Amino acid sequence: MTDADILNALTEIFRDVFDDDTVTITPQSSAKDFDAWDSLSNVNIMVATEMRFGVRFKTSEVEGLRDVSELIGLIKKQLAAKG
């Protein structure tokens, strides 16, 4: 799975979580780019991401994420570990 594939899937997740079909994200997108991105929406993004990709994140892994590119990297790491 490429970074672009993951980004496209994450875009759909963000659109669902924020209930806004116009949401676009880039690898540089972060919580500061979305007024509605609070702690609850962050949990919803992580849970939806885990479900979509069939992975499981540790709290310590997601606490330090600064932007979407780091989330993409974490997803790729988890997928690689699954084989």
Write the layout of secondary structure elements.
Blueprint: H1 3-18, H2 39-53, H3 59-63, H4 68-82
Helix pairs in contact: 1-2
Q: Total helix count?
A: 4
How large, in whole angstroms, is the Cα Rg?
A: 12 Å
CATH topology: Non-ribosomal Peptide Synthetase Peptidyl Carrier Protein, Chain A
CATH architecture: Orthogonal Bundle
Major β-sheet, in short? none
Output mean pLDDT: 96
Structural class determined from secondary elements: mainly alpha
User: Can you say what the CATH homologous superfamily is?
Assistant: ACP-like
Strand content is under 5%
- Approximately how much helix is present in the residues? 55-70%
- Separation, N- and C-terminal Cα atoms: 12 Å
Shape designation: globular
Secondary-structure element series: HHHH
Q: Briefly, what CATH class? A: Mainly Alpha
> What's the domain count?
1
Report on the architecture of this protein:
With 83 residues, this protein is an all-alpha fold. It has one domain: Non-ribosomal Peptide Synthetase Peptidyl Carrier Protein, Chain A. The chain contains 4 helices and no strands. The protein has helices at 3-18, 39-53, 59-63, 68-82. The radius of gyration is 12 Å and the shape is globular. The model has no long low-confidence stretch (mean pLDDT 96).
